[in-house]
Sequence to fold (622 residues):
Amino acid sequence: MIKKINDFLAGWPMTIAGGVFLITSFILPKAGYPKGELLAWVCVVICGSPLLYLSVWRIIHNKGISKISSALLISMAMIAAIFIGDLFAAGEVAFIMEIGALLEDMTTDRAKKGLKKLISLAPKRARLIKNGTESRISIEEVVIGDTIRVLPGETIPVDGRIISGETSVDQSVMTGESLPIDKGAGDTVFSGTINLYGSIDFEVTKTSRDSSLQKLIRMVEDADRNQAPTQRIADKWASYLVPVALLIAVASFLITKDIVRAVTVMVVFCPCALVLATPTAIMAAIGQATKHGVIIKSGQALENMGKADTMAFDKTGTLTLGRLEVTDIIPLRGMSKKELLMLAASAESRSEHPLAKAIVEKAVSWNLPILECRDFSMTAGKGISAIVKNVRYVLGKEEFITESGRTLEKEASSILDALRSEGKASVIVSDAEQSIGIIALSDVLRPEVTDMIGRLKKMGVKTVLLTGDHKKAAEFFAQKAGISEVRADLLPEQKVEIIRSLMEEGKVCMIGDGVNDAPALKIADVGVAMGAMGSDIAVEAADIALMTDEISKLPYLKWLSNTTVKTIRRAITLSMCINFAAITLSVLGVLTPTTGALVHNAGSCFVVLLAALLYDRKYHCD
Fold:
């Protein structure tokens, strides 16, 4: 009950009400109504009660030096001011402290919705095949060794190994791979991934509790649970300030025999400006970042971004645009590129495969006609066959072309090897007898990436690529981007382990966009998500979101973070200098508790002004 009352009093409405009564208590005596000063009692009760409760709670429950907090110092000054009858000073220090606490709370609230969205990806039922009969059962009833059937478009419910059937699987939820992975008998499938087409039967190798998706959920839960709350700067200083304040106040009383001077020392020693320095600067920085389309969820994220000396990047959807495009059209038999693309697009026009769609889109963008396609057939995970202009064309992988009786010359094989080394997927086009061309497709590097990586390197940041893609594709993109270190073929848990190892060497920032990146984004010192096209789960797991997907904002984020930290340090230095001067004047008897409170309040105003200037600071990057 006491906690509920204090939580109510510590909220914005009651704190603002307390501030109104405090100002009124200062104005009315000046206007000839001396009893008006008693209105300060309202502010003392509203703003002081939560501070007293917090300071007592920490003394009882905290251990060691953490029993001494900024709330204790403020409470002591407030009680001392009440003791000598200076209600305005008592109310003022309590009010400023409460405002600082509320501002800081606004900057440290963290969203918790992402985990629920991750959990929602897990299928609830599975299609069990037993003794030739199909039945639907709850996912919790599935046991190791069961045979599960998955139809086209369905989500794979648990981990397993394919017994029969061929298909292509969208594994981006787990690995971030941009290309669907062709699967056949003996291949492994993961929970949460999507069966694009082709019915498959697989043997369960892990129950739902131990599946890859559940492991992903647990990693995000653990990372979130292990995030230590940021200790307030004022509380760090309180362990030093409380004994020093008491010592100076007692010494002042013993020397001067004036209790008012001792109380004034307690009032001006209160770390109100110190309390305001961090949250006001952080709120200004967060406000500026928002103008640039960057959402920063906490002050700790800003601080850690400034300290980050390593940035780890996901590839697909982060460094790349996250969509397949035709990059190479290579005729082998004298025909033009346009003719080869037109024939390929016409043959692929009935296919739902992502590679086929990209080929058709390319032909449409070139304003090429899509010819009539007859007798279309598809072999899942291998290729297609269709008749265009009375000629049967076969398109697909090398094995599919040779299995269909067409020849593949050495020239084509060497071209395919070169394309593979660049991480590209290739579709071979053949007529009734032989291969007539090759069409290569790839994800596309964002145009601003190379410049962005260069700027980060100038700032002394090491860059690392972490991806579920194959090593050759990863190395090709890393070389184009200017990233020196590459880790490829990674599952989400492997990304987490690498992030942990990098964190042993310094502060690490992880940048990603997919569900598979969520655990790494959580575990890193600071996580940055691509907000526009990234998954909601990645955005919720991250500390910072780039809402326009402009990855070029990363150098700006580093600059903003560094500038914010410098502003906070300047504000703290200024508040300390003002406090030191006020303490000296208090000991000399120049200041009273009321005038001391006003001087001390002026310091708080200067701190807020410094933070306000940060809001409109211009970004400059060489």
About this structure: The chain has a mean pLDDT of 83.
